Structure formats: C-alpha cells, structure tokens
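Pilot study result, target chain (130 residues):
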Amino acid sequence: MQLVRYIPLLILAIAPIPAMTAVAPGQPNPPLERGQEKKPQKQSSRVDSLTGCVDQQESRYVLLDDRSMNQIAELEAVGFPDEGFAKHMGHKVTVRGIRIADSAPPRFQVRAIEPVSDRCTPQDSQQPKK
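Predicted structure:
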C-alpha cells in the first residue's frame, strides 16, 4: 500500500524535463528549433593602427595614403573632440583605434595620434631628382 503513495512522485521523477533556455558561460549553444535562424554575431573589435596624412574633406577629417594621397579612412575622435585632428593637418601620423568597416573607405575610431613627420607629400616627390 505504501508503494501506491509514491507512484505520482516516481512518475514526476522519470518524466522528461523541458530544456532550459539559459546556457552557462563557456558552454556551447543549444541546438536551434525549427524556424529559428542563427543571427550573425558582431566581430569583436580589436585595436588597430593606420599611418597616413591627416586632411579635411567636406568638414570631416580623413586619413590619406602618403604615396597616392587617396583617402584610406574617415577619422572619428574617441575621447577627445574632432578638432584635435586640426593640429595634425598636413602631417604624417599613426592613428590607433578601431577600424569600422561599414563603409568605403572605412571609418576609424581614433583613440590616440602619434606624429610621424611634419610634412606629408607623396613619397615619389620626396626622392631627390637626378
């Protein structure tokens, strides 16, 4: 008779438990159910650097390739005002920050600027003429 009293508990103990949706950190993601699509994950941002010449075009600061003088990035100041680029106009610099490739040319979120040269001219014109 006492066994009959425990049958409901036994049924609950062996019944399938619904899957939990939370996943512990470092654990693989659970399989997707039908109709669900996996969303693309954003790439982690990493610090990068670019070297070139600071210029201003259409009220935006840009970085130009020092050989061809073509635009290689649109500069965006992070942690300082955009006017901080003004003192580097026409100079060759190395900028450090994060490249955002959502446009062509890419935007570059600048966190630091290091001067390289006071002049910025195409390298071909810097060589002495023979």
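One observation from the pilot: Strands lie at 48-57, 60-64, 71-77, 92-100, 107-117. A full batch analysis is planned for the follow-on phase.
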